[in-house]
Every structure is written in structure tokens, then in C-alpha cells.
Design goal:
This protein has about 425 residues and is α+β, with helices and mostly antiparallel strands. The protein has a single domain, classed as Outer membrane efflux proteins (OEP) (Up-down Bundle). The chain is about 60% helix and about 10% strand. A four-stranded antiparallel sheet has the order 2-3-5-6, with no helix packed on it. The longest helix is centred in the middle third of the chain and has 67 residues. The N terminus is likely disordered.
Length: about 425
């Protein structure tokens, strides 16, 4: 028999994966696995899912810190210094009059103060920063969702590899049973001297080759099962049965529901917010402040005694003109918005191209399935005729095996195209973000 090429096998299957994954208990025999179950498990168990909660906690802490901008700020300041010269008060008097001694300022000075300041109006800077934090959190969480969604494509690759091997193993087993049945007839004919022993050996050799192919496909299937099990963190084994999904496409109207497409929209809104935030640089800022402490000298620089220091006040800053820097910064954000819009349109264009390929595959495979069924009907009839001819000695076992192989290949073609059609439909839904 011709060697069945398992072209659909993953090229990176490793023998080490044939062993049990640590920490995963085996399922009971004949557990049924569905594609939806695998989607649910990977979305629930993949480590990345925990990142959303971490992002929430991090954003909550940053928002709390921003709220502290409205609270008073306290700073303790102290200093000690010595200088070689200080201000002297010199009052020249006419000759004969006694000299006046002015106050002596010490060359060593000390100060310890508590400075308090509180924002009265910060030009809406904090308000915009809090809005920006919400946008950043939304983008980060959407990126997590997008990465989790992409895991479904990995699930699809493993799952459909398993389905293909699963279907072909069953077909090869059926072919083996057919040859074993015919082998019994040929062995009887050989014993009765009606047929040559070579015909018997040819069928036996073909059965052995089938057993090799079945073993090879079984190992490939088992490897794919172990990788899928590890990916979704759910127990599976070689006895698990993978159900072929039923996919209905009521229509093929283009509608991009991908999370990445939504992220671009959020980023455009975020850029608009940053543009509006530039205005805060024009706004005046008001602070109230106070200073309380001790100093030598205090606010009276002519005193050499340690004195209390108390001061309260308000402060205003305003920069009404910065040589059009703010206007240029707004233009920069306009350009960034156009860049994001261009990236979004490019992403959408790529999705449209990919879905056109999916639609073409769906149409092609649907037509191939019709031809597959016609071909199987013809091959089945030919095999039956060949079986009768072999029984009557009209053909050799070699001719009969060729006919059996032709029928098996036709049946494999049907099963492969069935699964490929389902996968094409799922790929179409995946690319549109509708899985």
C-alpha cells in the first residue's frame, strides 16, 4: 500500500511531549472534548488572564496618587551656615560725637521650618491626568484581551490537527479490517492450491504497512493532544474523543469585530485627550502656602536671637505666551491621530484580504466535497469488482491492493476536505473577531 502522507502534522512535535504533563491528572477514558470547551479553558486558565487584575490594581494606585494632588504638601526644611562677612550698619557722625553701635548680625545662621502648600487651582492638570489614566488602563486591558483572543488560533491549530489524524486513523483501521477479511479468503485459496502464496504475502505486507501508518498517526495525535492539554491547562489523554464542530455561516457580510480594531479607536480618543490637555499649560495655577519654624536670625535679619517664623500667603503663576510651542504640540497630536487612523485602516484592509481568502477556501472546499462523494462512489464500485476478481483469480493481490488504496485515498480526501471546510469557516469567524 502507498504510504499515507500525514501532511497535516505539526513539524515541531517532540518525543518528550509523549510523556504526561506534570500536575495534570488523566481524564477517564472516552471523554468527549469540544472546541468551545478548549476556548473556555484557555481563556480561563492561561496565566495572562491574571494580568487584567494586576492592571486594575496598578491603575487604582496611580489614581489614588493623583487624588493626593488636591491635598496639602508638607516639607520640613533645615539649614545651618557660616559666612565670612555679614551686613554692617555704619552711621557716620561728626567729630567729637560718640560712635553709634548698630546691631551685629551673627556669621553663623540656623533655620528649621515646616513649609505647607496646597493647590487651589492647578489648571485642570490633575483632572486630565485622571482621564488619561482611564484611557491607558482601557488600552492595556484591551491588549490583554487581544492576546487572549489570539490564543484561540493556537487552539484551532492543535484541535484540527487532532481531528485530521483522528479521522484518518479510523479510515486506515477500516482499510486494515477490509484487507484482513480478504486475507482470510486468500489464505484459504492458497491452502487449496487455487492461489499463489505471493498473493497472501502481499496482503500481509500491506497490513503491516497500515499498522505502521496507524501507529505513526497515533503518536502524532497524542503529541498534539499533550500540547493542547498544556496550552489550555486541562487534562486530556489519547482516549479523549474530539468532537467535530458544527459551524453555520448564515451570511458573509463584512464586519470587523477584532479587539485590535477597537484598540485603535481608543488610541485615537486618547490622542484627542492629550491634545486638549495641552491647554492646561496655558491655564493659570494658584497655590496657598505657609511657613512655620524657628530661625537665627528670623525674618528680622538685624536680630541675633532665635526667633519664631510664621508666614502665610498665596501664589499665582501664568505663562500666557510660549512662542507657539503649545500650538505646535497640538499639531503633533493631530499628526499622531492621523498615524493611528492610518494604522487602523491598514489593519482593517489586511483583515478584508484575509477574509477574502477564507471565503475562497470555503467555496472551493464545498465544491471539492461534491466531487469527493462522486469519486468515492466510483472507487467503492471498483474495489468491489477487484475483490471479486481476486477471489476468482482474475487479478493479483497487487492489483487488488492498488484499488483498495485508491478507495482509501478518496475517503481520506473527503474527510480532509470536510475538516478543512470547518476550519476555513472558523478561520473566517476568527479573523472577523466573532469567535
Amino acid at each position: 500500500m502507498k504510504r499515507i502522507k500525514a501532511w497535516f502534522r505539526l513539524p515541531y512535535l517532540l518525543p518528550v511531549l509523549f510523556f504526561t504533563v506534570p500536575g495534570i491528572q488523566q481524564l477517564a477514558a472516552q471523554d468527549t472534548i469540544t472546541l468551545d470547551f478548549c476556548y473556555q479553558q484557555v481563556q480561563k486558565n492561561y496565566p495572562l488572564i491574571r494580568q487584567a487584575g494586576l492592571l486594575d490594581k496598578s491603575s487604582d494606585l496611580r489614581t489614588k496618587n493623583l487624588n493626593k494632588n488636591y491635598l496639602p504638601a508638607f516639607n520640613v526644611n533645615g539649614s545651618a551656615s557660616w559666612q565670612n562677612e555679614v551686613t554692617e550698619v555704619v552711621i557716620p557722625l561728626p567729630a567729637g560725637l560718640p560712635q553709634l553701635q548698630g546691631p551685629v548680625i551673627p556669621k553663623d545662621q540656623y533655620k528649621l521650618t515646616l513649609d505647607v502648600s496646597e493647590s487651589i487651582y492647578d489648571g485642570n492638570v490633575t483632572s486630565y491626568q485622571k482621564k488619561l489614566e482611564k484611557y491607558n488602563l482601557n488600552v492595556d486591558k484591551k491588549n490583554v484581551d487581544a492576546n487572549l483572543y489570539l490564543l484561540k488560533d493556537q487552539v484551532n491549530q492543535f484541535y484540527f490537527s487532532i481531528l485530521l489524524t483522528q479521522q484518518n486513523i479510523e479510515l486506515l483501521k477500516e482499510t486494515k479490517r477490509q484487507l484482513e477479511s480478504k486475507l482470510g479468503e486468500v489464505e484459504s485459496a492458497v491452502r487449496n492450491g487455487i492461489s499463489l502464496k505471493m498473493n497472501q504475502d502481499l496482503i500481509r505486507a500491506e497490513i503491516i504497512k497500515l499498522e505502521q501508518n496507524i501507529y505513526e498517526l497515533s503518536m502524532d495525535r497524542f503529541a498534539s493532544i499533550r500540547m493542547l492539554s498544556e496550552l489550555i491547562s486541562s487534562p486530556m489523554d489519547e482516549n479523549s474523543v474530539f468532537k467535530i464542530p458544527v459551524i453555520n455561516l448564515p451570511g458573509m457580510t463584512y464586519e470587523n469585530k477584532r479587539i485590535e480594531y477597537e484598540i485603535y479607536t481608543i488610541q485615537k480618543d486618547r490622542t484627542s485627550l492629550l491634545k486638549n490637555m495641552v491647554t492646561t499649560k496655558w491655564n493659570p495655577k494658584f497655590w496657598a502656602f505657609g511657613q512655620f519654624g524657628l530661625g537665627r536670625p528670623g525674618y528680622n535679619f538685624l536680630s541675633s536671637d532665635i526667633a519664631p517664623m510664621f508666614m502665610v500667603g498665596a501664589k499665582l503663576t501664568w505663562n500666557p505666551w510660549n512662542w507657539n510651542a503649545n500650538r505646535n504640540e497640538k499639531k503633533i497630536y493631530d499628526i499622531q491621530g492621523e498615524i493611528i487612523k492610518n494604522q487602523q485602516e491598514s489593519f482593517d484592509k489586511n483583515i478584508k484580504v484575509t477574509t477574502q481568502r477564507n471565503i475562497a477556501d470555503i467555496t472551493k472546499l464545498s465544491e471539492l466535497l461534491l466531487k469527493d462523494r462522486e469519486l468515492i462512489d466510483l472507487r467503492t464500485g471498483i474495489t468491489k469488482t477487484a475483490s471479486s476478481q481476486l477471489t476468482n483469480g482474475a487479478i493479483t493481490s497487487s492489483d487488488y491492493i492498488l484499488r483498495v488504496n485508491d478507495e482509501t485515498q478518496a475517503r481520506m480526501g473527503l474527510e480532509i476536505h470536510k475538516i478543512q471546510l470547518i476550519k476555513a469557516k472558523i478561520s473566517y469567524l476568527f479573523n472577523l473577531g466573532k469567535l
